[in-house]
Structure formats: structure tokens, C-alpha cells
Amino acid sequence: MHMADALLSPAVGGTFWAATAGATAWCAKKVQRELDDRKVPLMGVLGAFVFAAQMINFTLPGTGSSGHIGGGMLLAILLGPHAAFLTIASVLVVQALFFADGGLLALGCNIFNLGFFPCFLAYPLLYKPLAGSGQNHKRIVAGALLAAIVGLQLGAVAVVAETVLSGISALPLQPFLWAMLPIHLAIGLVEGVITATVVLFVRQARPEILDCAAGGWAPGARPIAKVLTALAVAAMLTGGVFSWFASALPDGLEWSIEQASGKGEPVAPTEGIHGLFAGVQEKIALLPGYAFRTGDQQAVGETVAHQAGPTAWPAVDPGTSVAGLVGGGLTLLLTIGLALLFRKRRAIA
Amino acid sequence: MSPPLIEVRDLAHAYPDGTEALRGISLHIRAGEAVAVVGANGAGKSTLLLHLNGSLIPQHGTVRIADFQVAKAALPDIRRTVGMVFQDPDDQLFMPTVAEDVAFGPLNLKLPLAEVERRVASALEQVGAAHLRDRPPYKLSGGEKRLAAIATVLAMEPAILVMDEPSSSLDPRARRTLTALLAGFGHTTIIATHDLDLVLDLCPRTIVLRQGQVAADGPTGEIFADNRLLAACHLEPPLRLQACPVCGGGSGWLPQRGKRI
Amino acid sequence: MSAIESASFDLHRLDRLAACDSAVHRLDPRVKVLITLAFLVCVVSFDKYAIAGLLPFALFLTLIIGLAGIPSGFILNRLLLAAPLALLIGLFNPVYDHQPLMRLGTLAIAGGWLSLLSLMLRFCLTVGVVLALIATTGFNAVCRALEQLGMPSVLAVQLLLLYRYLFVLVEEGLRLNRARALRSFQGRGLGIRACGFLLGSLLLRTLDRSQRIHLAMRCRGFDGTIRTRNPLRLNGRDVLILAIALAALLAMRVFDGPLLLGRFVTGLLAS
Known about the structure:
By secondary structure, chain B is α/β, with parallel strands linked by helices.
């Protein structure tokens, strides 16, 4: 999933922009230093290839729904991590500008989520050691599968993290994660299979491409210990992100404590995605009374009050509400009027 | 007689997968000549062309362009002398607009900006594509793309033009425009093509390749009259020289650059 | 499939719009990129319940779109296409947030509904302004602007090449897709394996193309850096417009215009 500008707070967006800008500059330097000018057109057309490849859908067995390749892991395998990162970044820029996928501020997040994890964690720590020198087909499949899954899971965790930290969406950490992780597990599985199929096809047809493509990154198999280390690092990272959130957001922490101790209110509406949907009907109420605030809601309410700060609507002040409504309505009318005016002018011209 | 501008001696080339694309080719081309290179698919045309601008370095034998022997050290000079027009203009037009694409080569020659501008304008003028200047390549028709691709090469002001299938995938009108344009050039021209009618119009001399060797090299008229040779090389006489199925006659032809021989 | 074809159509449409001429089109691309960024930062920096405060930004955007002569239907259409995802996430706000934050007479409105409305408004503004940027500037000019604003040139070249070959490869992808669809029956031939081979052959062709492009570049003296001719030049008018726009955005962010206006009007009515 792409992060959208509308879900971001400036602090989160800015932080990831900075991180991504740094990574991009570093990759640009690396690629320039490689002095392989074949990569200039290669990266360009492979970026375009990702778009073309996304047009070729396939039917998912059993479900009847269709999917397409994301392409991040494939780019990493074909280009090596640094060039792949830049290529993924360029793909996301085009998606943000033309297809309203993500946004300019969310670019930092999206490049990080979809570029950093596959290129700098999943590829070097999982795919490379597992696939080895690429002679063994089973190892290629295993490497592509695992790398795609882990890369996408980390990306999904990051999306949840960014959304929850931004606080524009009221979605609590736990159910959001419960929704995102299984979906991205499925997406990662499919991505891994299709990536492996394409890599095997290329290996069979033109083996030299894979050998030269990943140049600049030390080839050769790594011992199994390194694979385990890699998995451990990924796990720790995920765990770290989890606990960071849990502590940053009281409701998430409360939830896990309740779970761990087996106590707490049994009607916790955040109990998995199931409970979440079950509670939707009851909770979409225009007029929730004050008495509604119990337990979980209280925590949410507190975070809200905390985040809203002094610039928010000053609590419930009817006078302000009316003035705000009247002024807002007038501004809206003005906007629509202006739009109609321009429309008329265009029609005349 | 002037010394040959292009001299290929005993050139052989094998690709990494073992295919022997060229097996001992020798030929001379003089300044101002327009020469067609014809042959079946896989006869070695493209491989030969790639040697002429140093995209491939001779594995065996030598290629000499003007004063330079084709080798790594001489590549910049050779690429300035030999302009190559690729078969697919989409491969050649990679910049955002036609003008920027035409400027790509001159900028790489590190010419002053004013000179770059002059070359862009004059190259586009020569191919009659000045109006395409600011258009992005993906919005051009097939014929316009071809003209733009030729302009990108002309802007380098090469002495020799090498073209790979210049008339492929052009509609008849665009093809005619191209023929007229190429007939007006004074460059030494080498055209690899399957379009033998184009050869009739443009090239007084034809070299026939077969399985990596020169099967024939001579005046176009003589070669196209030799039906046995053409058949052996998987070729057919140009349509204009074949008997018309409707009226039964074949029309004559006039090589427009014949006087240069 | 049809969605994809329409996406590629949109690409051409945006490109055509960018080739139009208006006061907004003529502005220096850097000025437009900076105004867009400032606009985005202002919009997302409002707190999650802000609605009225966002409306002046809608006015600002409408003004720009109107001045540039971009058909509003086109922008609305794109917004509608992209909206479901934001709506999906936003719909959870009323589910989780019941804190009454606003009262109209006896009617109390929960924060969740306000923040949902705010989120959708943000979505329209952030997506709309980016579409307006690209529709008045064109991709290549945006790239050049970003490069001059400090984006690494490797990435700028990458973006230009990607955009150039997007049109070529998307055509190829569509052709492959059509050819496969014509020979697939009852879902046979549309599975992952067939797709993998299709992608594999498209990839091989793409790699060959990259080799040919590289050759074409080398033939014209390419040495690893791509040089361009005319760097952008700022003129006084551009700088002035940039300053005015930034000041306006800042003012809209700092002062809650609609609230002031509303107070003024309700004050008049009350007196």
C-alpha cells in the first residue's frame, strides 16, 4: 500500500523525506562511482518496464481475483541494490505525479517502504545468501520468496507505523497491523513466486544478464549463519518498531497488556479485525453520548486531546462552531463560485 | 583516385555463443560513394555495420576509417567521423524533446552552446523537421521519428552515414520523403537493407553478404540482374525489375547518384 | 485492463495539458514546485479535525486550476478514481473516535466524523495540487526543476529516461496483454506461470533495448553524464509571484480565515 499525503503529519513526512533523500544521495554517488554507463539506459528502461509489467495481470489460483508484479525485488536482483533503489524511487515519483498514488510529501515514506527494505535488507541479507551463485533453481525460488515476503512485511509495518504516528487516521495500531500483515503476506507470496518465475526464465534464456547485472555487489554464497543473522536482524527490527509504537501509543500497549494477562474487558472492540467490523455498525453513531467514553475510548480520546493541542476547535463551544460553520460555508461557496466562473469563461473561450 | 575512406580487411567476428557472424570480409569504400549492403537475415549485415563505428572492435582483421584504425583508443575520432542511424528510432531518440536529442551529440563533443544551437537548427532544417523541434519523441509518427533520428546523427557532422534498415516500418509516403532526402545528401553512405527498391533509388553499388562472407560486390544493376546469385542469397529482384503480373512488363530505373561512380 | 488503458490515456492527456499556454504554465517550474511543496506542508500541518481552515486552500487551488485553464472535470475525475483508498482508511475515524467536538444546537458531532471529513479534504487538496503541478508544468520540466533544486542528477536522468520509455514499453505491455487475452479461454493461460513467461520475454526485450540505447548513446559521444543545454533562468516576475504565493499560503495557514469571516458575519447578524 502506498502512503498518501492526506494521512501524513509533517513531522513523519519530513523525517522520512530526510531519510530517503540521504539514501538517494548515497545511492546516486555509489552508482556514479561504479562508472558503468550501461546502467544509465538500463535503469531507465527497467523503470518503464515495471509499469509495463504491472499491466500484465494474472489470475490468482482459487480466488478468481487478479494481481500483478510490484517489481521491487526483481529490480534489486537485476540491478543490484543501489541502482535498484534509484529506479524504484523514480517509479514512485512517476506514480505520485501522474497516478495520484501516494503524493509528494508521502514520497519519502513510500520510497523508504518500497525501496529501502527490499534493496538494503531483503536483497543482501536474504536473497543473496539463499540464492547464492544462482546455479540452483530451488535456492533462487526460496530466496525470491523469502526476500519478497520479508521486504513487503517490513514495508507494511512501516506504513502502519507512519500512519499511526501521524495520527490523522484514528486507526489504532493493533487492528491496522492485523489487517495489513496478512494481506501483505499474501501479496509477498505472489510477488515472490512471480519474481522467481521471471528470474528463472531469464536465467534459462540469457544467463549472462544476471551475472553482469548485479555487478558491484560481492557475489558468491554466504554461509547459513549469515542468513540466520539476517533473519534475526529483520525480526529485531520488526520487534523494535512494534514495541516503539506500543510505548508511543497507550491504546496499543494497553491492548497487548490485556492480551498478555488475559484480563481486561471482554468486549474490547479492538479484538482483531473481526471484532473491529462487528463493532462498526454500533459505533457509527452521529450522537454518541458522553457516557460512551469508557476504557479504550478514553485512551483514544486522551491521545486525541493531546494531539489536537491548542489550535484545535476549542472543545465544544457552540459559538465558535457556528462561526466556523458560517465562515466555512461562505469560503466553500466562494470556491464553487470561482470554479463555475472559470468554467463559464472556458466555455466562452 | 583518392585513397579509400573505409577499408575493411579480412574481418571476422564470432559472438560469445559461438555464432560466426563474419568470416573474412574485405572491402573498400571511397569518399562520396553510396553503397548498399544486402543479404538474408543473419548474413552478417548488422555485425559489419557495428564494426564501422567501433561499436564492435575487430577480433580478427582490421577496419580503417579515414586515418584511424578501429580500436579502443581511436573511438572518439571514429564516432565523430561515422554517424550511425539505428533501425528502431525509439532506441535513438532517448531525450525528452527532439531538439534536446539532436543536441545530445554536439553537447558531448563539448562544443560551445552557440555552435550547438546552430547545429541543432541546421540538422533539423536538413531533414525538414524544424517544426518538430520541441515535440517529445513519443508523439511523432514513424516517418517523423526516422527524420529526427537522422537529424541527431547529422548534428554530429559526420563524413560517413551508416544506416540500418532506414525504410523499415515506414508508410509509402514517408518512405518517398526519406528516399528524396537521402538522395540529396553528399555523405559517403552505407545502407544495410532488405528494401532493394530503395537500393535501386540510392545506391549505385551493392555488396551482397552471405553467411558472413562477401558473395558479390559490384554495380547494383548487374547484381540485381543476376537471378541465380540473388536466389542463392535468399533475395529477390526489386519489384520494379520484376515482370508486372498485370501488364507483363518491368519498368526501367535510373540510379540517381550513378554519375558518382 | 480498461483501467490500465485509461491510465495510459491519462498520461497523454496530462502531457497535452502541460503543452497548453497560460500565465501559470509560463511560470518557472521551480517556482511551481516550491509553491506546491509549501501548499502541501501547510495542508498536512493542520490538526486532524481542521475543516474550515482547509477551505481557503481549496479556494487557492481552484484559482490556480482556473487560471491555468485545466478542465476541472479532469481533476475531479482523477480524484474520484484515487479516493476509495483514502476513504477506506478514513472511515475508521468515526469508528474509533466518538469524542464530541462540535455542537450545533442540541446536535453533537463526534470527532471521528470531523476528522474523516478533514482527511478527505486533505486528500483532495494534496492530490489536486500535484495534478495541477504536472498538468501545468509537464514531467520533464518538473524533473529539471527538481534537479536544480538539488535532486541528484543520476536520479533526474533516470526519471527522464523512464518517462521517455514509459510510452514505448506500456505500448508493448498492452500488445502482449491483448495477444494473450485473445488466446486465453475460461481463465486458462492467465495464471502466474504464463504471466511469468510473458514478463520474462518482455524483460529480455527490454534488456536488449537498453543495450541498443546504450549503443546509440555511445555513438554520439556519451561518457556517463547527460548534458543539457539551457538551464532555467528565474526572472523578476517569477520571484515576485513566488513571494506572493508563499505569503498567501502562510497567511492562510496562520489565520483561520473562515472563522474570522464567520465571526464577522454572525456578529453583523447578531447586532
